[in-house]
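I am still getting used to backbone structure tokens and would like to learn alongside you. To get us started, please write out a protein record for me. Once you have written the record down, we can walk along the chain together.
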Amino acid sequence: MPRVHHTGFSGNVERLELAHLIQIACLSGITATITVRQGNQKGYIYCLPGQLAHAVVSNKSGQDAVNEMIGWKAGTFDLRHGIPPNLPRTLPTNHMLVLLEACRVHDERVAGERSESEPKSVRINQAGAAEILELIIQHRRQKRWKCKLIRSVRVVLSFIAITTTSLIVVKSFSTLEKLFPGFVKRAVIRKHYGGPAIVPAGKFYFQDGQFLNLPGFNIDPTEVTIAEYAEFLAAIGESHEYDHPDQPETLTHRNPQWERLYRTALEGREMDGNIITINFPAVFVNWFDAYAYANWKGRRLPTEQEWEKAARGVDGRRFPWGMETDEGAANIYRSEPGKKWSEPEAYPKDKSPFGVFDMAGNVSEWTSSVGSSGNPVVRGGNFGNSNADVTRRVTNQKASVLSDRIGFRTVGNG
């Protein structure tokens, strides 16, 4: 058989059986991105050798995304080798468990809607079929020499395991990190903080006594996290379809400060004197980044009026917890210069009457409102200022600013 250049393949699909494509990619032992299209919908599945890593479609990810795409009845697919860097891990390594769950959900969804005799087929061109066959053969050859390699290194692995265990017994975890920087990695578990908080329609006190009336809306209970923003970047790739019309062409939604933050958070390591994880608020994101993320989620940034009502409630309080200051109630500056971010809900008193966290402290937040300066209005306190009053507003930050003190959250109508 002649050598096939492994770049990938594509095909037209009738009654798309996505489970077959996933099994082909995993069986072939390749790292690949499967792009699936149905009409104007587009989804991505990212495969590692013999396993799945991540899936995303619309505003769904992980198992929910696979469940959605498994049910598509017609479309096209494109399989290309390689995946984007720094993808979040949203799927278990056993791809069969993912497929079984997706098929179960799909069968429940379409029970009784189709007859058993309906045709199901995936049409792949001849070159694509040849590549699949060679990939499977090559994968089996690799498995044979890998078995020999595994036997050869067992002694070395055993020695490493014994040495590592001894060090853990003798020294504490923190001592190991000092002796061997980068050697010990923490397992970071992504947290979920529930659905949006509901803010009903009605009047409230804005700033210093204005009595305003707003329609109802819902708002994220926490600031957008590093994990959530990373998911957005993985989903859009190089696309600009969610960008604000005024975003400069030279701007992208990635920057070196964000990349450093994300890599550090993935392993639960220290940054600027603070141990951070992917559950911490996404910072080093400018106003255009926040706008695009909200647009991708089918939501938007809050107006400053919506933001303040969600933080104060309707009784005119100055702080989420009431009218009086409360030492230590929020993550603001308290003579600890090195202290910065905190995880959502780490300060339970910094919770508004509507159940919204961290509006008095942690990081300030972009809004959709524009001040008299022509800059976006930034609302809320942060770890670098000493005032937790939620009437605080800042208008001297340009839309392109990247700050470790500014994050964001999103809202929806109704």
Summary: The longest helix spans residues 126-170.
